[in-house]
Amino acid sequence: MLVFTSSVENIGYGPLIVEGRRASRRVPTMRAVQLIALEKGGFRRVVGVGRLRYNVSPSHSHWHLLPFERYELRTLAGAQIVRDHKSGFCLTSDHQSPLPTLGPHAKQPIKGSDCARDRPRALRLLEGIAVGWGDIYIPAKEGQAIDIGGVPPGDYDLVHRVNVARILREADYSNNDSSMRIQLLPPPTPGALPGVVVLHTCETGIQC
Question: What is the pLDDT of residues 123-138, one digit of tens each?
């Protein structure tokens, strides 16, 4: 398995906020609605932006937005070889981004945005990323891996894509892909793990 860290940064005009609701605990998922903050106050509600499902794992148990991010391994010609099996994402503001933003940098994370952590019986929740903040997933967390079994040695692009179907509203979709050029090395001995060398990192684009 190829494991890695990923991060999504909000560098737009306003916060990315997703509200989840379900009418009954008999329904296993919540409907996701995007709340877009308006300049004069209040929010515009955008329905149909995905579903939220409670995810249980040793490292974290909370509600995940489906879909949101995707990881792919591609050839240098752009052909997808394999992709992740991630079970969605909890959107949080867990670190401040060093990148410049279009809107004012938020002083703190979005209030009440905790993905209903450890609350599988929740009927409503908020999750999101404040302007100037990011959501990081370290390799130890569930799903942060791509199975490279059977992938021959060579150079590849490890691609990280956000909001691929563009169901969440954004000011700019052009910066939703990033990539890393890596080289897979043959195992030094039979049964050993292959080596990985990072050749380049690219903040935007599916080809590095």
Answer: 999 999 999 999 998 8
Between strands 16-21 and 124-129, the pairing is antiparallel
Half-sphere exposure of 96 (CA within 13 A, CB side): 7
Q: How many CB atoms lie within 10 A of CB 99?
A: 12
For the beta carbon of residue 36, count every other beta carbon within 10 angstroms.
16
In sequence order, what are the residues at sequence separation of 6 or more whose Cβ sits closer than 8 angstroms to the Cβ of residue 166? 173
Joined tokens for residue 201: 């990192």
Residue (of 200, 119, 129, 198) closest to 163 by Cα position: 129
> How far is residue 39's CA from residue 97's CA, in Å, rounded to a whole number?
23
Sign of CA dihedral 61, 63, 69, 75: positive
Question: pTM (2 decimals)?
Answer: 0.89
CA-wise closest residue to 91 among 160, 163, 27: 163
Question: Residue 48 and residue 35: Cα distance in Å, rounded?
Answer: 12
* Helix and strand totals (H; E) in the chain: 0, 16
Cβ atoms of 200 and 106 within 8 Å: the answer is no
